[in-house]
Amino acid sequence: MDVVEFSLEVNQNRYLPADGREMHAVRSVTGRRTADGDGQPSRPGPPRLAEVLVIDCSGSMADPPTKIAAAVRATSAAIDVLPDGVRFAVVEGTERARVVYPPGAGLGIASAASRKQAKAVVARLSAGGGTAMGSWLAAARDLLPDEPSAICHTLLLTDGINQHETPQELDRVLGTCVGRFVCDARGIGDGWRPRDLVRIATALSGTAEAVRRPAELEAGFRATIRAALAKLQPDVRIRVRTVPYGRVGFFKQVRPAIMDLTDHADRIDDRTVEFTTGSWGAERREFHLRLDVTPPDGILDEDRLAAQIDLVVEGKSRPATAAVLVNWTEDLVKSARLDPGVSQVTGQEEVRQAINAGCDAYDRGDRIEAHAQWTRAVELATKAKDEGALEQLRYLVQIDPGGLVRLKPNLSRTDVIVSSVMSSRTWFDDPPPVPQQHQPTEADRLCGQCGWSSPPDAVYCEQCGAELDATGAAGRVGT
């Protein structure tokens, strides 16, 4: 059976000015498919995917009727993609959740006969009722198996506002779903709120996307199911352990999509937090970590440990470890140097913040602020050669050859809200490099307790007396 091997790389400029308080690092995680065991080509195993398709059938899906018709076609197309043996279900979402397939309890098993039956049920779906996305997600949670080896996935489609439950109710349900399954959220029409989709996708390690025309939905559903089928590892977490003089300021996924994971951390102890990233296949993702650090003393020009980063796969820590270092210095040349990986990521984040600020302004009727924000986004994206952002901006503004930016006349709400969601997508400029594990060199034994740099033959930290293990982490205090 194929498995995923992970490797890590950290990009940062470890030098901070003597009064510096923020350390930024970009961590790349690359998963590669490998054959398990003897290295022989793997034979297909039983399908591990368990899929729940959640379709908004509220009354607004009938206005216009092309939306519900597109949803039916897209759901049928997704069912056709499911290979034999995959467990699946279809949920009708209104002000409550109703499992329309399979007819009995639990999940159905994909086969030629069951796919035909499921599509026949989907063809009879009609629009009517309200919207309560929390109840839809709770239904998916209860249907999906609680098995360590299962790849649990939900595809949720909506066209409306989550008006039949409170934000607190949705948050409560999301909290019970984190780590149980990945949810890809999709929007259609012009009546939904981008933040609802992003909120669900971020909490549940999925993606948020939308279509401008109902006809595009079918291809999008097929692509989403194929991506779910490519996942091999169900549960991957990133563990960040800080030193006493540091804490996590924020933690974001920045490629292939921007998602702020800061508020979804699991605190292990006072200095350790874990972030769930969902299921993985052969892919690469990047994460932006900001550490808030305080110089513990007046020592300058010493490499010190700021944080240790580990991968936790199926509850077990992998041997690959990356270190984030900090070195306070009065050398302004060193501290002003920009790491290319970090600057590119922060540049893309700035572009997307400007796009979203413009979308928010346009939505509340402030055309002047929208124009200013989108003009800034065009300037930033052009400078960064961010073609993905420019593609979304061209739906919102006209960009003259001379650089003049003008709002498009008769701009539709669909273009505004779709651009808001789709602007979160990012990409890699070049193929993933061979990852390198950036660790302290043999000459720098960094204490995991206080961050002090000790000689390579030191057994105990020269600063705090903690015992140094093979990786420089603190053990018991020496006497």
From TrEMBL:
<protein>
    <submittedName>
        <fullName>Ca-activated chloride channel family protein</fullName>
    </submittedName>
</protein>
<dbReference type="InterPro" id="IPR002035">
    <property type="entry name" value="VWF_A"/>
</dbReference>
<dbReference type="InterPro" id="IPR036465">
    <property type="entry name" value="vWFA_dom_sf"/>
</dbReference>
<dbReference type="InterPro" id="IPR051266">
    <property type="entry name" value="CLCR"/>
</dbReference>
<feature type="domain" description="VWFA">
    <location>
        <begin position="48"/>
        <end position="223"/>
    </location>
</feature>
<dbReference type="Pfam" id="PF13519">
    <property type="entry name" value="VWA_2"/>
</dbReference>
